[in-house]
């Protein structure tokens, strides 16, 4: 039996002034109560109780121990009640990082609704496209697009994130519709300059064959929003993550090209957080909230 349980038995004996009374109160036998008091006295190497056939009373040392033990048990009970309350009413800081454009378009509303529902959580949301390490950069929750390196971080998948070839009807009328990846070499394909990758399209066809084609274009930008706007205006073909173009496709402002080919490798959106056997309720609730929100992304609904 653990020490805290023994202390609780001792406090009950002093309050009841008998082993039998404490045993009835605790649902134990008198002999079991007596045995635990003996074990406690042996651990402390001091006599805590004076025993007679009719009465049990604390010794001087026992009286001191009783007052401290009683207060400690009350503090422990209050701590447990506070923890249970936190599960129902989470509070405390929560630092979150979203990718810039995905966050603005689809996640800021999610964060705002969480803040309204849980006003005692101090939510700190950052939107940027730099690589965020939850541990080294001090974030509790990080949403990341793309493949994940092996790490000790906990992850949950939020949604798929296909990169799609899109162009406006105006561009297609002027320049024609590409019918195969090789046709892209003769088209104006808008270039993303936010990384060092060469301007090419890597794809997988319906038969599972992987290929690549070099591209050329008249406009470059390190902003996906800029490239999406240029595609809507008919400047050229854009290859962009689905969250940039989903609403434009739905509204008919853009058309999805070469639909029997997938941009390769495929990518997903994940939420990352630091491992902890006992995750704070505020973190668990926020991650669950993100997962529910992502299930309603327009490209996930089908």
From TrEMBL:
The keyword DNA-binding applies. SUPFAM superfamilies: Periplasmic binding protein-like II, Winged helix' DNA-binding domain. Residues 1-59 form the HTH lysR-type domain. GO terms for biological process: DNA-templated transcription. Keywords: DNA-binding, Transcription, Transcription regulation. GO terms for molecular function: DNA-binding transcription factor activity; sequence-specific DNA binding. It comes from the Bacteria. The keyword RNA-binding does not apply. Belongs to the LysR transcriptional regulatory family. This is DNA-binding transcriptional regulator, LysR family. It comes from Primorskyibacter flagellatus. The lineage of its organism: Bacteria, Pseudomonadati, Pseudomonadota, Alphaproteobacteria, Rhodobacterales.
């Amino acid at each position: 039996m653990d020490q805290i349980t023994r202390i609780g038995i001792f406090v009950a004996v002093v309050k009841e002034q008998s082993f039998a009374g404490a045993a009835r109160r605790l649902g134990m036998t008198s002999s079991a109560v007596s045995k635990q008091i003996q074990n406690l006295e042996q651990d402390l190497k001091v006599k805590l109780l004076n025993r007679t056939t009719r009465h049990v009373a604390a010794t001087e040392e026992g009286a001191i121990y009783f007052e401290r033990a009683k207060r400690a048990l009350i503090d422990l009970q209050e701590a447990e009640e506070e923890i249970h309350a936190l599960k129902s009413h989470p509070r405390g800081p929560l630092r979150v990082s979203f990718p810039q454009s995905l966050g603005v378009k689809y996640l800021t509303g999610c964060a705002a609704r969480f803040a309204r529902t849980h006003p005692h959580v101090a939510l700190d949301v950052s939107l940027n496209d730099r690589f965020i390490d939850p541990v080294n950069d001090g974030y509790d929750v990080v949403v990341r697009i793309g493949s994940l390196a092996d790490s000790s971080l906990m992850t949950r998948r939020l949604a798929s994130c296909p990169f799609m070839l899109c162009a406006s009807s105006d561009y297609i009328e002027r320049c024609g519709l590409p019918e195969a990846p090789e046709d892209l070499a003769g088209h104006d394909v808008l270039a993303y300059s936010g990384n060092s990758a060469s301007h090419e399209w890597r794809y997988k066809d319906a038969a599972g064959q992987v290929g690549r084609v070099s591209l050329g274009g008249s406009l470059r930008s390190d902003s996906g929003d800029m490239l999406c706007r240029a595609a809507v205006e008919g400047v050229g073909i854009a290859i962009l993550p689905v969250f940039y173009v989903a609403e434009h496709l739905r509204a008919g402002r853009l058309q999805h090209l070469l639909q029997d080919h997938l941009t390769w490798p495929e990518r997903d959106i994940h939420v990352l957080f630091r491992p902890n056997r006992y995750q704070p309720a505020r973190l668990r609730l926020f991650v669950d909230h993100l997962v529910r929100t992502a299930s309603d992304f327009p490209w996930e609904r089908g």
